[in-house]
Amino acid sequence: MGIFVDMPEVKSFFKSPLARALCLLFSSLSLVILCVYIFSGVLGFELPKTILIKRNNAEWVSKIDVLNRKMDLAESALEDLRLKDDDIYRSIFGLNQIPVSVRRSGLGGASRYDEYDEPGMVGGLKNTTMRVDNLLKEAYVQSTSFDQVASEAKKAGAMASCIPAIPPVAPDKRKVKLSSPFGFRSDPISGETRRHTGYDFACKPGNPIYATGDGVVESVSFDFFNYGNSVVINHGFGYKTRYAHMTLINVAEGMIVKRGDCLGTSGNTGKSTGPHVHYEVMYKGNYVNPYPFFDMDMSLDEYMALVHKREQESNLVLGMVPRVKKRK
């Protein structure tokens, strides 16, 4: 019927080189599979590739352990910084403590680390990655806190140089006397009880008057019935000072002055019964007692050293200003 294969042809095929080659290949594969089965399944030995993978995995696990130990040290150091920051640095400048929930808030949800749960990932890699991310977040929060503390420290430094802190005249007790304090007194002209809003330093006319803190000259004015020739300096941070009854004024409105700069000289202008310097300190629009802001027991040498330093700095600044050439 044509459906049977001629047996001689089949015998001829199996005797051909191709058939022999296929039989040899099949036998070899079978032998390899059998050897692998016996080697790994029966005898319990591991394949070279498996050994290499496990060796690499062990190396990574060891590296992760080392990294975790380093992070333990980093977390301990960061905790020390946190304690100093909250208990010392921030409290010094009146800053609130940063809540622990803010410092230790994680980055994203649990799904952020799903890829580390996939088969083949090194054990412990997920937890280590989470620790690294959280440590970086805490370090960022701490860095931001230190930036804030540094900014406040800078402001405090500027504030220290601006707040009135020295007498408006050199503390030479042979030439200067405190003649009238702050508070209510009998007016020397009208005799009525009135509030004296400053402190008077009795001295001869022409005695130098100095800025008691850094600031900007807010006003230079003359008031015949009160302050006479006077200068007001705005020191910022809510502070202002007034120097009244002056004879000579060396500054103009808008000028930047530093502590120790000479503003002019004492006199007897305006409502005054004798040569003196009337000195006022104002804080947020209110007159305050100037006495706590200066020390007449301050060393005269120390005071004059400050004045001479400012004179040298002023001359240096003036020498650096380029001259403007006149047009022909």
Provide a descriptive summary of the structure in words.
By secondary structure, this protein is an alpha+beta fold. The protein folds into two domains: 48-162; 177-315, Glucose Permease (Domain IIA) (Distorted Sandwich). It is 43% helix and 20% strand. The chain contains six helices and twelve strands. It has helices spanning 7-14, 17-42, 48-92, 100-103, 125-162, 300-320; strands at 177-180, 183-186, 193-196, 199-202, 208-210, 215-223, 228-236, 239-249, 256-257, 262-266, 276-283, 286-288. Strands 1, 4, 5, 6, 7, 8, 9, 10, 11 and 12 form a ten-stranded antiparallel beta sheet that branches. Helix 3 (48-92) runs parallel beside helix 5 (125-162). The protein is rod-shaped. The model is unreliable at 319-328 (pLDDT under 50).
Outline of the structure:
The protein is an alpha+beta fold and 328 residues long.
